[in-house]
Design a protein that fits this description.
The complex is a heterodimer. Chain A is α/β, with parallel strands linked by helices. Chain A is built from 8 helices and 10 strands. Chain A has 2 domains: about 180 residues, P-loop containing nucleotide triphosphate hydrolases (Rossmann fold, 3-Layer(aba) Sandwich); about 80 residues, no CATH class. The termini of chain A are far apart. The relative contact order of chain A is 0.17. Chain B is mostly helical. The chains are: A alpha/beta, B mainly alpha.
Chain lengths: ~270, ~210
């Protein structure tokens, strides 16, 4: 069943003064099925974060519409849980208050809310840390709080903006495992932005590669490997190699005549 | 050096070890008083430099002098009222201007021109507006307290991580919720700096 539909989205940033307008995305069209985990992959500047921000409702497309369950998205709402790149945890609230924040706006009994928060704390393995403040937590724990908080309000879709962008390589794999486990457990439709190819292969059912040249879809790549993927398996490595070459194509599209000229001269 | 906290003289090191820096202020104060004491002794003219002992004695007896204390109370009340109004109005304007670019653009020309006016030039106008008595003084205190506060609040609100606001919005928070739960706690450190400056400014314009 179709859950999210990105319908011919175009985004143009107006240029300042005499700069030309920048077309970030042009006629991007795809849909995401219920329960699917989709990664938006591409070189920096290809518009993947812009697209996610628009799905989140923080930014309006220049043309086209985004539909969630057939309804056009207008502004942010609790239907779409959002995990920010720097987690954006409220520094003056405890772990528990951070997770419970979204539930304040729900018409539910106190017991139900309490139960939900406890369930999420268990799921994110944060027991014993409920009363800590975000600054007292490790990067991995902060991430789990951010995911738990985004899941609290029963969203239809979970949006993740490079949640592991700033984390070093060794820690990354551990956190990928944790994130993967949490999302599988929550059984939710998710869209994640990343520039890490192996991360996208490890976590998603489908990878959409966006190209740099007026942000369009270069490839819609399905990953059919069974869950709990083995990073060392030959199938996994094959997927990574294929996607890497697709990203390379996406990146090379961006090289304009002028840049190509400079590169030639350097050689 | 956990156990040597608050210890001024470290016996082993045979030197002054200032573990707790709050002593520094008192040391400078005592040094200045000592210089004053000896300077006034050598100058011998109270017109140029008042005698230290007399001044110190008056400072101490002043606390028990009924007339001084009544006047001190009146001044304190005026400062608190002026600063109080400044906190209320400055916070409201500051939140509005920091949160919304439109409000900022609408109000900043007025605020930025009024705040440049020297405080003394308000004296005649404030007497015409409020008559003689409490009114003009409170108004002047208000005028010198409100701008440092407003500017700090604007700054504090404008510098809140936009992702925190976005996060609250994506969880279903309305604008009043965002102001209460994100803007106010997020801008609180800047607000406190503003209050400090406002109280300082308020005392300066006590006449």
């Amino acid at each position: 069943m179709e859950c999210l539909k990105i319908n011919n989205i175009t985004k143009v940033y107006k240029g300042n003064n005499n700069e030309p307008d920048k077309i970030v995305l042009k006629d991007v069209l795809f849909s995401i099925n219920e329960g699917e985990f989709v990664c938006l992959l591409g070189p920096s500047g290809c518009g993947k974060t812009t697209l996610l921000t628009m799905i989140g409702g923080f930014l309006e497309p220049t043309a086209g519409e985004i539909y969630l369950d057939g309804k056009a998205i207008k502004g942010p709402s609790s239907e779409r849980g959002y995990v920010f790149q720097n987690y954006a945890l409220f520094p003056w609230m405890t772990v528990k208050d951070n997770i419970a924040y979204g539930l304040k706006f729900f018409d539910k009994s106190k017991e139900e809310k309490e139960q939900r928060v406890n369930y999420l704390i268990n799921m994110a393995r944060l027991n014993g840390n409920e009363k800590k403040f975000p600054i007292q937590l490790s990067g991995g724990m902060q991430q789990r709080v951010a995911v738990a908080r985004a899941l609290a309000g029963f969203p239809r879709v979970l949006l993740l903006d490079e949640p592991l962008g700033a984390i070093d390589f060794q820690m990354r794999e551990i956190l990928q495992n944790e994130l993967d486990q949490m999302i599988q457990e929550a059984n939710i439709t998710a869209v994640m932005v990343t520039h890490d190819v192996s991360e996208s292969v490890f976590m998603s059912d489908r990878v959409i590669v966006l190209g740099n040249n007026h942000g369009h879809i270069v490839s819609d790549y399905k990953i059919k490997l069974p869950r709990r993927r083995d990073r060392e398996s030959s199938e996994f490595k094959k997927c990574v190699a294929e996607l890497t070459s697709l990203v390379r194509i996406a990146f090379n599209e961006n090289i304009t005549a002028g840049e190509a000229c400079i590169m030639k001269r350097r050689k | 050096m956990e156990n040597s906290k608050n210890k001024i003289w470290d016996v082993k090191a045979r030197r002054l070890e200032l573990v707790n820096d709050t002593y520094l202020g008192y040391i400078v104060l005592i040094a200045l008083c000592t210089i004053w004491f000896f300077a006034s002794k050598s100058i011998k003219s109270e017109l140029i430099l008042p005698n230290f002992e007399k001044t110190a004695l008056n400072f101490i007896t002043g606390w028990t002098n009924k007339r001084i204390m009544t006047n001190f109370g009146i001044t304190l009340k005026r400062v608190l009222m002026g600063v109080g109004y400044a906190i209320i109005i400055g916070t409201i304007i500051g939140i509005g201007m920091g949160y919304s670019k439109k409000v900022y653009n609408a109000l900043s020309p007025i605020i930025n021109s009024i705040r440049q006016i020297p405080i003394m030039t308000w004296v005649p106008l404030s007497i015409i507006w409020f008559g003689l008595g409490e009114g003009p003084t409170i108004f002047l205190i208000f005028m010198s307290a409100v701008f440092p506060l407003t500017i700090n609040v604007i700054d504090g609100v404008a510098n809140i991580d936009q992702n925190l606001v976005h996060a609250a919005k994506s969880m279903g928070a309305s604008i009043p919720n965002i102001i209460r739960d994100i803007i106010i706690p997020g801008a609180f450190p800047s607000f406190l700096t503003g209050v400090r400056l406002a109280i300082g400014g308020g005392w300066q314009s006590v006449i």
